[in-house]
Design a protein that fits this description.
two-stranded antiparallel ribbon, disordered N terminus, single chain, about 65% helix, about 5% strand, mainly alpha, 9 helices
């Protein structure tokens, strides 16, 4: 009962399982229809295979055996293809931990990390949101969190605790939302001084908004690490 309940809970959140489920059900229905057609020739509703619209160029038992074999193959192949997938590697899970540590550092040193003193010989400083995008994995392929969603997708091949699945999927959605919002706010902040009606106040306004999203992203990533049993 617990396994069925877990399956029904996860099914809407894992579309690839739902697709395979529909394929298998459709195949079994087709097989049942074929069996009904053959049974009609035996109970008198059809006087012959030809009168049922079928060509008598094959044996019913052969077709039934072939259909059954095909059904078994279709039911087994999806599981084999899923088994061929690989869970996240140790290096990929290490990226998660390193990226999380980076976000923690950014939040603990936010003003320092987002302040640049390069103008006028380093005597004039300004706020810059570029580090926000970098720590969130949005600037370079070498950033630990660069396209980290691909690592999340591999989690379906891990032996996860069924009780943590719902929390995991919710956390990945929260991460994606916070990542996109922090990227947008940081981008606007970077150009806020040059936009019409903009200035340093606008830069700071959107920089602070990006910080709020980074806080949400940290919480989401923390939950993901917990669900994947990766120590923080």
């Amino acid at each position: 009962k617990h396994q069925v309940s877990s399956f029904l809970t996860v099914l809407p959140k894992r579309p690839y399982i739902f697709t395979l489920f529909k394929m298998n059900v459709a195949l079994l229905l087709a097989l049942a229809t074929s069996c009904t057609a053959f049974s009609n020739t035996r109970d008198g509703s059809c006087t012959s295979v030809t009168s049922c619209g079928m060509k008598p160029s094959f044996d019913r038992r052969d077709v039934f055996a072939t259909s059954l074999s095909s059904a078994a193959a279709f039911l087994v192949l999806p599981q084999q293809s899923l088994a061929a997938g690989a869970p996240p590697s140790k290096e990929e899970l290490d990226r998660l931990k390193k990226g999380y540590d980076g976000i923690v550092y950014l939040l603990e040193n936010f003003e320092q990390e987002t302040t640049v003193c390069k103008t006028d010989g380093g005597r004039e400083c300004k706020r810059d949101a570029e580090p926000v995008r970098r720590y969130m994995g949005l600037r370079s392929t070498t950033d630990p969190l660069f396209q980290i969603e691909k690592v999340f997708a591999k989690a379906k091949y891990m032996d996860l605790d069924p009780d943590k699945l719902e929390d995991f999927f919710q956390a990945t959605e929260d991460w994606n939302t916070a990542m996109n919002m922090s990227n947008s706010m940081a981008f606007i902040s970077q150009f806020g001084e040059y936009n019409p009606g903009g200035g340093k106040d606008e830069v700071l306004k959107y920089l602070n908004e990006s910080q709020k999203q980074v806080i949400l992203a940290k919480s989401a990533l923390e939950k993901i690490l917990e669900c994947l049993d990766v120590p923080k």
